[in-house]
């Protein structure tokens, strides 16, 4: 029986209950009947941030942005799964522990499937309203499958993708469907299909940044094609997003109080997704060395914490309602990512002039005015791609993107460098060919669904 299957039981129940909760008691329903009837019912599912915003945490831990040696004082405040992920262990979760990242993403897929299964036949909505709801659900589903593929499946290789092991592909609300994995090529095909189907029915920008829109769908398409090594399409979709003129803040505007807009008000965020909790850990000194004098990201995104963590830590302030400095990290889509995706494509096309133009567009808004010095082609000519990789590391500190970049750069020769870590007196290494670049499937999931199969360890 596969009701438990790929989802935590409560997720399956909650998706149904959410529909009834959103009915606002406008009618009486039998206890054993579904209550998703009107187009507004499905819109309420999308409006509930809890259904799609909270995602995963561990890509922030497994990347080389975290220091190669963690003091015992820091490790003692990490959860067990964090410590195991830090050393790329054969298992990240033990006993009855559950993988919140896997669960959250398949919850997103389940709720999206529920919307897509019924919204076009729903009552009291216009065709345009129904198509808009379906379009948002498709973008959320595409984001979830991309995130799963870049944690629990191999690095996408266009020469091997048809034979690479992907994920269980769930496109309906049938809880008894086959959970055997499809190819990685099929997963990416579905991601592209969902996004291309959605785009025409989305507004250019959303009313709130946790709703998908054209600009976020273009941004996600650019990210996906970059991962697929289809650089022409990655550049094309980045251009479509940039044509909508997404906001890039001048960080000097925030230096007086060292505060940023709330996540919901952050105009750089094109699609709001947050980590499943927050990650505080010492940052790699090699990463810190990439920041130059006057780079305000070093001041606003990072702090020096000499106590428990004994080093630099990610601190980009979000100041939630409780005033907590270390809230969940942003792991969604952003304006700077689009710009740097386009810059990377220029680097791969050996177009130094356009590369420098885009890097300067971002850097001018990241440095204090008195310290900013524009790059020239002479500054990047020795290695165009490395100049973009370094800028991505500086910009995306504290997000999931470094882990995804590390994985795809294994196909670019020397741009992936073996990572070595020391923890509790033992040394661990991660090289470009390691199976540990793929996360393990939670044994609790496999106990109910052995047909999924464990990833090579």
Automatic annotation (TrEMBL):
Alphabetized Pfam families for the sequence: SusD-like_3, SusD_RagB
Main location: membrane
Mapped TPR repeat ranges: 215-248
Keyword Transmembrane attached: no
InterPro entries: SusD-like_N, SusD_RagB_dom, TPR-like_helical_dom_sf, TPR_rpt
Coiled coil regions in record: none
Domain of life from the UniProt record: Bacteria
Cellular compartments annotated: Cell outer membrane
Residue ranges of every copy of the RagB/SusD domain listed in the record: 308-456
One GO location term (cellular component): cell outer membrane
Keywords: Cell outer membrane, Membrane, Signal, TPR repeat
Domain SusD-like N-terminal, first and last residues per copy: 77-226
Family indicated by similarity: Belongs to the SusD family.
Protein name, UniProt field: RagB/SusD family nutrient uptake outer membrane protein
Organismal lineage: Bacteria, Pseudomonadati, Bacteroidota, Sphingobacteriia, Sphingobacteriales
